């Protein structure tokens, strides 16, 4: 018999994967540092209100994805940001508590140690926008509710700093500095994925702990896109000890067609060559099925909520990275690009595990 060393894992798909990819996925702690559970937000609300509606079949879909830990942060903001924050964390805590046979909230490094063996799905709680922090003491309060990551701004300006599509970017305010300092003190990760260029660089300068870019890509490969990070910012991220998660969002990967998995892998290569593989991770910025599977009206509303500089095209997803098994395809791609097993394990989750362990446990450096 001829054994080509490739295996079809899923009955409904003709895709096959190498034995090496399968082994890497099985033994790695796979972390998606921006993976919402579903882009069907009424369904997410239903799970929060009635956790018993999250069924064994729902759980099986998440398990078969190979992703061990999700960071399902969403954007909040505006005059009701504080109330939105309370609702978000209350809903997730209800969902996790009511589905404890399936889900485990990741609060500490010890939870990373036990999540893989538990057979459950891990959830790191965070939000995209720190506008719910009305004062530094709110950082402590939301940490008590389980928040472990906070993106400083979404795309627009808030009292902390500026977002990536704001008209001007003056950087972190004095209030923003105080928020970063308090986040350092309580052990909450600073995320600058949607921040403007100056605010991004200021966060690296001010923080005494590593700063994360949980979900972005490289502006050097998509010139002019405001949501992507400059080489200067990527170098500052690495100097801080941080990690950058790569997305599979089409307009963040390439400015023209075709846009393929290979172009997404180019972003991994760019960061690896610029600052080292130890600063690479995954933040897919989607749910398991992708944006293009959303109902047409919901997709239209999503697009309308962003400025034209986002550069939406006909499709948002990339074929091959738009399905629940995409981490297997990504791993196959990293194998093709000649990354070592150890490097791939780091990209899949080991690097984010390392930096979050540091942020959550190490006292901030002295001024």
Kindly describe this structure.
The protein has 367 residues and is of the alpha/beta class. The chain has a single domain (16-361), classed as Metal-dependent hydrolases (TIM Barrel, Alpha-Beta Barrel), CATH 3.20.20.140. 43% of the residues lie in helices and 11% in strands. It is built from 14 helices and twelve strands. It has helices at residues 19-27, 41-49, 56-64, 81-98, 109-118, 137-144, 174-186, 197-206, 231-240, 250-253, 261-275, 296-304, 326-336, 341-361; strands spanning 6-8, 16-18, 31-32, 69-70, 103-105, 121-123, 125-128, 147-151, 189-191, 211-216, 244-246, 280-282. The strands form three sheets. Strands 7-8-9-10-11-12 form a six-stranded parallel β-sheet, with helices on both faces. A four-stranded parallel β-sheet has the order 3-4-6-5, with helices on both faces. A two-stranded antiparallel sheet has the order 1-2. Strand 9, helix 8 (197-206) and strand 10 (211-216) form a beta-alpha-beta unit. Helix 2 crosses helix 4 (81-98) and helix 6 packs parallel to helix 7 (174-186). The chain is globular. The model has no long low-confidence stretch (mean pLDDT 95).
């Amino acid at each position: 018999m001829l054994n080509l060393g490739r295996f079809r894992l899923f009955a409904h798909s003709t895709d096959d994967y190498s034995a090496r990819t399968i082994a890497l996925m099985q033994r790695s702690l796979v972390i998606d540092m921006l993976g919402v559970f579903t882009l069907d937000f009424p369904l997410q609300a239903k799970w929060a209100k009635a956790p018993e509606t999250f069924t064994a079949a729902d759980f099986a879909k998440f398990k078969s994805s190979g992703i061990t830990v999700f960071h399902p942060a969403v954007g909040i903001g505006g005059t009701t940001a504080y109330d939105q924050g309370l609702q978000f964390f209350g809903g997730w805590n209800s969902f996790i508590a009511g589905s404890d046979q399936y889900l485990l909230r990741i609060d500490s490094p010890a939870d990373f140690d036990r999540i893989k063996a538990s057979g459950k799905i891990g959830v790191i709680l965070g939000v995209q926008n720190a506008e719910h922090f009305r004062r530094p003491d709110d950082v402590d309060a939301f940490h008590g509710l389980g928040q472990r990551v906070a993106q400083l701004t979404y795309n627009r300006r808030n009292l902390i700093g500026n977002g990536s599509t704001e008209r001007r970017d003056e950087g972190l305010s004095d209030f923003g500095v105080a928020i970063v300092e308090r986040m350092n003190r309580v052990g909450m990760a600073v995320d600058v994925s949607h921040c403007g260029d100056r605010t991004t660089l200021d966060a690296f300068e001010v923080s005494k702990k590593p700063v994360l870019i949980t979900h972005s890509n490289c502006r050097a490969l998509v010139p002019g896109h405001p949501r992507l990070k400059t080489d200067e910012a990527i170098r500052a991220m690495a100097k801080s000890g941080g990690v950058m998660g790569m997305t599979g969002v089409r307009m963040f990967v390439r400015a023209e067609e075709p846009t393929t998995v290979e172009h997404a892998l180019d972003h991994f290569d760019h960061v690896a060559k610029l600052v080292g593989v130890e600063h690479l991770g995954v933040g897919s910025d989607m749910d398991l099925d992708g944006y293009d599977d959303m109902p047409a009206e919901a997709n239209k509303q999503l697009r309308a909520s962003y400025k034209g500089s986002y550069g939406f095209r006909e499709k948002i997803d990339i074929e091959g990275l738009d399905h629940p098994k995409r981490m297997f395809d990504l791993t196959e791609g990293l194998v093709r690009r000649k990354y070592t097993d150890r490097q791939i394990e780091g990209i899949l989750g080991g690097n984010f595990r390392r930096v979050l362990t540091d942020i959550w446990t190490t006292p901030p450096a002295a001024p």
